[in-house]
Write a structure and sequence with these properties.
The chain has 387 residues and is α/β, with parallel strands linked by helices. Helices cover 44% and strands 17% of the residues.
């Protein structure tokens, strides 16, 4: 059977997820399906590992839409993008005689799938389901109702066979009961290989004092990830503790505006005579360098605003045996608790975050609980579930 795997995004977890699928297809010779990967042309430039993996199997075909098609699919308002992307996926599915489309990110496509009936089976990963969202303000309630209605209509499309939700068994069970269906399935959020081929001395590289605790904030940098809150919180730590705190902020800013704000906040921190050390790595880092960061840091900072969805950063922290500072609610709290880690913030307040940074200790995670979590979230389990 011919299957089209669709993903036009190139940042965050998207290249990593594609690589997990490709590796599994190459290694599993019993799988006779032919997979056509419709992906952004920039993948070839930025992630050569993906291109190299494709040429190792006759059952993998790497294709890219034209620049004009990509631009049209990724611009405009959400509803316009939804229909544009669905039409693009259908076009290439028909061209390559695919019997099924696997969307690696189905969120943006929900409107299109709800209000059209493509003559092809579909499945996809849904990031950030409504079941765990806040339900306090009027805005929260309206957002909940809109997402509930959209999900209900989504389930009425008989061509949609599977909707995968990362690391959320409870939500899958709840949604299947609520909408009288069985399409919602739990998908283990994969923890990548954290092994290190070349040791890099992070303390020496960034001139970090030997007695400083290293706090790591890694991934897409954005206000919703708490990036700016972290820098502001450093100003509120007592002077006596500031000398022993180093924060490494590493990842891709969500926009140039956020990048500017991060640099301005760090500048304000330094002008304020703070003794906290901040290391800002705004460029892409290799997997080896990233793994060194996780191995050699003491605490991972995740003061996220949106805790409805899973996070690959949490999995990497758990695999690296690190404690994590994160909110005391949502899916992230449940996952951290199950893995035996977590210093939980009682509220979304910068003073609370500052106190956590000042008081937290570098305690190791319970190894047996941690290992069980890691074993249940391998890239192989992730890929075989989807394929």
């Amino acid at each position: 059977m011919n299957i089209l795997v669709y993903d036009l995004y190139i940042s965050g977890h998207h290249p990593e997820f594609l690589l997990h699928l490709l590796k599994q297809i190459v290694s599993d010779e019993s799988n006779k399906n032919i997979y056509y990967f419709l992906i952004n042309s920039k993948i070839r430039e930025n992630f050569p590992d993906i291109f190299e993996m494709c040429i190792r199997s006759k059952r993998i075909v790497l294709i890219s839409p034209t620049d004009e098609e990509t631009c049209k699919a990724l611009t405009g308002r959400m509803i316009k993008q939804s229909f544009s992307q669905l039409r693009l996926a259908q076009k290439y599915a028909e061209l390559y005689h695919a019997k099924k489309i696997l969307f690696m990110h189905i969120n943006i496509l929900q409107f299109g799938i709800c209000f059209t009936r493509p003559k092809i089976d579909m499945a996809g990963i849904l990031l950030g389901q409504f079941t765990r969202q806040a339900f306090q303000t009027t805005k929260d309630k309206l957002r909940y109702i809109r997402r509930f209605a959209l999900t209900w209509i989504l389930t009425k499309n008989r061509r949609l066979k599977d909707v995968y939700i990362l690391n959320d068994v409870k939500s899958c069970e709840s949604l299947n009961i609520k909408f009288n269906t069985s399409i919602f399935k739990n998908l283990p959020d994969p923890i990548p290989d954290m092994s290190i081929s070349e040791k890099i001395d992070i303390r020496r590289n960034f001139e970090i004092p030997a007695d400083n605790l290293i706090f790591l904030h890694f991934g897409v940098l954005d206000r919703r990830k708490g990036t700016l809150d972290i820098i502001e919180a450093l100003q509120m730590i007592s002077k006596a503790k500031q000398r022993f705190v180093t924060v490494i902020i590493a990842g891709k800013p969500s926009s140039e505006d956020i990048n500017t704000q991060i640099k301005e906040q760090i500048g304000i921190l330094r002008k304020g005579a703070s003794f906290c050390q901040v290391v800002y790595i705004e460029h892409y880092v290799s997997n080896d360098f990233k793994n060194n960061l996780f191995e050699q840091c003491d605490i991972v900072l995740m003061p996220y605003k949106n805790v409805e969805a899973s996070s690959g950063v949490l999995g990497q922290a758990i695999a690296s045996n690190k404690n994590v500072i994160l909110p005391n609610y949502g899916l992230l709290k449940d996952l951290a608790t199950n893995a035996g880690t977590g210093y939980f913030l009682k509220d979304d307040n910068i003073n609370t975050l500052a106190l956590a940074i000042e008081k937290v200790e570098s305690n190791e995670v319970n190894s047996s609980v941690r290992m069980k979590y890691v074993e249940e979230h391998t890239p192989e389990i992730f890929a075989t579930t989807l394929l």
